[in-house]
Amino acid sequence: MTSVKGTRRGPRASEGRWVLLFLGPTLIGLAVLSAGPILATLGVSLTRWDMLTPPQFVGIDNYATLLGDDRFLTALRNTTFYTVVSVPIGMLLALALASALNQQIRGIAWIRTAYFLPLVTSATAIALVWLWIYSPTGLLNNALAIFGVSPKRWIADPTLAMPSIIAMSIWQGLPANVIIFLAGLQAIPSEYYDAASVDGAGRWSRYRSVTLPLLTPSIFFTGVLALIGAFQVFDQVYVMANPGKPGSATITLVYFIYEAGFRNFKMGYAAGASWIMFLIVAVATLVYFRTQDRWVHYQ
Amino acid sequence: MTTLRATRPLLRVAAVMAMAVMVGACGGAAPSPTTAPPAASPSATAAPSTAQAASPSVPASASPSASAAACGTYAGPAVTITYAMWGDTTELANQQKIVDAFHAMNPKITVKVSVSDWDSYWPKLQTDLAGGNAPDVFLMDGPLYPDYQTRDQLLDLSPYIAKDGFDTGQLVDLAVQDFTAPDGHLYGLPRDLNTIALFYNKTMFDAAGIAYPDATWDWAKLAEVAKQLTKTAGGAPQWGFYTETSDMENYWSSLVWQAGGDILSADKKTVVIDTDQAAAGIQFLQDLVYKDKVMAQPVAGGVGDMFENGQAALEADGSWLVPTHQAAGIDFGVAPLPKGPAGQATSVNPSGVVAYKGSKAPDAAWEFIKCYTGPQMQAMIASLKASMPANKEVLTNQYATSFDGGKIFAEALTYAHIKPSFKGYDEFATTLQDELDSKVFNDNVLTAKAALDQVTPKLQKLLGQ
After folding, report:
1. For chain B, first and last CA: distance in Å?
2. Tens digits of residue pLDDT in B224-248
3. Distance from CA of B20 to the nearest CA of A (A)
4. Nearest chain B residue (CA) to A271
5. By CB count within 10 A, which of A24, A39, A62, A116 is most buried?
6. Regarding the domain with residue range B51-194+349-418, which homologous superfamily does it belong to in the CATH classification?
7. ipTM of this complex > 0.85?
8. CATH homologous superfamily for A60-295?
């Protein structure tokens, strides 16, 4: 990062075509595979279409209906709850864990590997293990029974279902964030710590005044990905909660879109829901980007 | 990170938009629902025996022009057709044997079978149909048939039936009726079907010295005996009763009919699930859990079949569970469902084979469908015991006598109601079931009547779409 800012501001003119050459495949892919379908979705969202018979133009009917559809609003509420809870907690835990793992102690490589395991484990395998943890006669209830806590229905109880899934998701998403934080931590030059020590800074104030500010770019970056990822939550809900059950307690926006389009023959309606979600995510991300001048420090 | 920050505002927006790209095609294997009709148990012990299939005791066909209606009359060019169905790998292996038998009878037609689990089968089918690339023949669930038939995706089989003089009277009438479109034509033929009855664990009944259930049982008797067989104090609990509450087919639609209610009016234009009678049926099930306490509180996602696990003495459920219960080593018998205030009723749900309208080999597809519902291949389906054959002869002569209880499931057809089947069934059923799961079955928040009053306007709106 320092080198980019250091000597040169940008590529020389002769390097321009090389830039295009390297970016080309991605740009073409983005245009053909992402931008095209996204725009097409906008068109589809103005129709009533079951994919099998010709679409009928209905204007903004789908949007009007969506905003009064209880199930859509439930999905929106569930997804917002999921995002607001899972993103901050997930990042705080990842930060704490990365700091703890950034130590030079014996066997640290093994310990780090253990924490990264969820990242390379298949989502289905993880869900199956967690289903067992959460089952009425499972690990969690047995462990709680030792402390005299009566068994809970972690997945079947509508009020506990979403928090249970959030807990699993946080655990599952932890290692990806930890890796980024760990890389960020290791990129901080030790001179800064030495200088801080000379000035008499203790352990905590070194962490607060050196580590945290220099880690803000990593935190910012992780935050963007976590925010967008959380809004698109689907797999966990689909596998864990036997789609969306109990009741509609765990239906999320992407699940709603999937259900409308591929189960209920309402592709136009699903496209409308996708666009509402897209706008929400875009606005949230934009707002998040705007805050960065206030708290993100680049070296 | 530096580069992101350095870009101009417009590019930054573009970056945000690009990152915000959503609608991911999200995968993930899903547990197939317990209600997916005839998925053969992975541990099904009864492999289809070809010896049985060739049994001379099975008459060919009662059709007047038996020659054309019989299997093996395809005269077209050699062709390969595709056949898609839901199920697991065991189901695939079982059906492969049936398809091999078909190939032996029709050497010019090769059938490629594919299976998907229930949850991914339907989205895949829709995508294939939308792309004009659907399988030549595919399996169709009775309730979902109108969704595909009314969208003009299925081959009209009536001309083929007329041409070959195929006698649809050899198939279970209710099942044929379920695949009869509003125009009176058949766009599919039933392959197999399932009815609901009462399983009982003989060991538990014997231990308690209680007489086995029989046709005289009513709701009160069920609740009374289930209470006697419930021992939840100390040790491993034994429940008197178990059923799956998360789909109407397993038990609660039968209760609605036994109480004199219904889900839709006869013309399928009005939702009538909120009548006192219909609510009484669902209330009975809620009471078994929360008032009589003879059944464990249902859990979304399921805790497994408690009857199969030897934790419940009785289970109201479908004929598809027979191989599972047999494999679990339960010594069980089968009785008709206990009668309700309005008498006896059960649910029947056929799955059928349909052909894609855009198939390039419609003649071969028809030959396959015709043979599938004929005596030889039906005998192979019957020997799996994972569902009841749609062919009457095979049902009566083979299935009904092949295990203790087969007769009960077969005879249940005389008082069975077809599982509701109409355009938009899936969304309707999900909306209704969500209400019942969250308010009535998995939690005791509302009475059945209050919950149904709440959800009926929504259902009526869906039905009108």
Report:
1. 50
2. 999 999 998 877 889 999 999 999 9
3. 6
4. B23
5. A62
6. Periplasmic binding protein-like II (3.40.190.10)
7. no
8. MetI-like (1.10.3720.10)
